[in-house]
Amino acid sequence: MTFRKARSIAHLALAFAALGCAAGETLVVEPDAGRAPRDTGPAVMDVPVPTFDVGPLDRPAAEVTPEPTDAGPDAPEVSRAMFCEGSGPPVTVGPPGAMRCAGRLAETVFRYSLCSCSNLGLAGFLRTDSYDSARGMMGRERGGAVGVNGNYTIVGYSQIGDTLTSSGIAPLRLVGAHNLDGDFNLGGPLEVVGTLDVARNSRIRSNITALGPMRVRGDLLHQSGALALGIIRVDGRRSSGAVTVDPPCACGAGEIFDVSAAVRDAQARNDNADAAFDPTRFNAVLGRQVTTLPCGRFYADRVAGLGSIELRVEGRTALFIGGDFDLGGFFDVQLGPRGELDVFIAGSVLGAGYLRMGGASRPSGVRIYIGGDRGFTLLGASRFVGNVYAPRAAVTIAGYMNLHGALFAQNIITGGDLDVHYDRSILRAGDDCPEEPMPTACRRCGSCRASQACVGGACGVCRTDADCCEPLVCATATGRCESIPP
Fold it and tell me: Could you give the residue ranges of the DSSP H alpha helices within 29-179?
């Protein structure tokens, strides 16, 4: 045992003794007396399946205005009562005083099952699909798009249930069988050694070499002057022209959500006193610690220890962590029928380097936002449940991973197989949020709700797929941007 590790354990033991806590204890933080829970209706909802426009590639994108506006410094403060009635935690976005409902943040951030600000590298197979936990549907359905701002590499085979977009310029060599149920957009050369089957349209910005069979069931557009050789079958229209593959993940300056600012705001304004929540509660966790949190916004100094935490959440709850997340055991979340949890970590995931999580019956109801830049590992050979946003941190997946939810990271690398089940109900996470003033001007993505298009600089209904933020497509019957039909 190194001196550093021994010192860390000694510090944990001292902090544990100071708290006077016993391993395995249970803390119940009581909600306000006499407050009845909000009735949100049945857990299973009848959501109509819309009609989608799956048209050709050559439709012009809508005119957009580059810079959005926000609610401004005079946005009203959200009380705990308003929060518990569906307002969500006020999180700081942009200038001081600007508020944004956490549900609307989630539905905008987690449009992809996997989103990487740089590269995505896989040594095994990749399989993505989707389901809608709000409708009680747990089967494998189409969905689960993959976005890569850099280069995509894979050694094994893939079955992607939606769109794959990689804007990097490095060559992509596909060996084995590869199937996409959505579009395929690539910024560099493509070499197909095995097989490739694309269910919708494909846009390739460089050369195409198909030594094995490549089939595009929609339209194929490749860059003018680029070579397209080999066994290529196109069911729609095949053409050449200018091809631009924009980075699919919002990782640019001004696009990354400021987790630290949200935590600083919560440190000053929270419901700790109202609900008798001790901010040092998770400073030194040993054994199994069970905590029941009511609806509200709670601030904790840090999460540290050798044990595990089980959070039981019955209402709309947000937990803001001022320091690092340094837990040796599991972080489990048990959601009640109306439970919803957002965790904002100002620091990084430390400790053994693992973030292990499970227990949630509705992946869309658990969202973890990490502000730090230190890389961490998702433990393989187990099920991970939840949605993780870590745009500044590299994430390594150790071994086989069965992920229920979504992952947004600075870089994603896995040495094993990856099976991702995307919960489509996260795209409706903001439905219970209060009405907010629409921005007077919007940019391409991020300003409007996930279901809205940005057309002519204003949030509104979509007319074609080009109006929607990828990978969403336009349900022309309703004018809503939705995930690909299952």
Answer: 80-82, 102-109
Question: What count of other Cβ atoms lies within 10 Å of the Cβ of residue 117?
Answer: 25
> What is the DSSP-derived secondary structure letter of residue 351?
T
**Residue 77 confidence class, pLDDT cut points 50, 70, 90:** low
CA dihedral over 423, 139, 165, 353, signed as positive or negative? positive
Q: Which two tokens stand for residue 255?
A: 């696009």
With contact defined as beta carbons under 8 Å apart, do 129 and 404 qualify? no
Torsional class of 144: left (φ above 0), alpha (ψ -120 to 50), beta (otherwise): left
Using an 8 Å Cβ cutoff, are 265 and 91 in contact?
yes
Cα–Cα distance for residue pair 129/137, rounded to 1 Å: 12
Return the CA Rg of the chain.
Answer: 23
Dig out the tokens for 307 from the structure: 């044990």
Residue 165 and residue 151: Cα distance in Å, rounded? Answer: 10
Look at the alpha carbons of 359, 363, 366, 368 in this order and tell me if their dihedral is positive or negative.
positive
pLDDT at 29 over 50: no
Residues of 42-66 as b/e, b for ≥16 C-beta within 10 angstroms?
eeeeeeeebebbbbebeeeebebbe
**How does pLDDT run across 294-353, given as a tens digit for each residue?**
998 999 999 999 999 999 998 889 999 999 999 988 888 999 888 899 999 999 998 766
pLDDT digits (tens, 9 = 90+) for 197-226: 999 999 999 999 999 999 999 999 999 999
Whole-number Å distance between alpha carbons of 339 and 409 = 25
The percent of residues in the chain predicted with pLDDT above 70, rounded, is 77
Tell me how crowded residue 169 is: count the other CB atoms within 10 A of its CB. 14
Q: Which of 363, 113, 424 is nearest to 248 (CA)?
A: 113
Residue with token string 């094994």: 156
Do 416 and 440 touch, CB atoms closer than 8 A? no
Are 369 and 389 in contact by the 8 Å Cβ rule? The answer is yes
Q: How many CB atoms sit inside 10 A of residue 147's CB?
A: 27
* Whether the Cβ atoms of residue 333 and residue 367 lie closer than 8 Å to each other: no
**For the residues of 396-407, what is the DSSP string, one character each?**
EEES-EEEEEEE
**AA identity, residue 336:** G
Sign of the Cα torsion 92, 448, 389, 402 reads positive
- Residue 3 above 70 pLDDT? no
User: Taking the CB of residue 281, how many other CB atoms lie within 10 A of it?
Assistant: 20
Letter string b/e over residues 216-228, b meaning 16 or more CB atoms within 10 A of that residue's CB: bbbbbbbbeeeeb
What one-letter code names the amino acid at 408? F
* Mean pLDDT across the chain: 82
Sign of CA dihedral 232, 230, 227, 115: positive
Residue 103 buriedness (CB in 10 A; 0-12 / 13-18 / 19+): buried
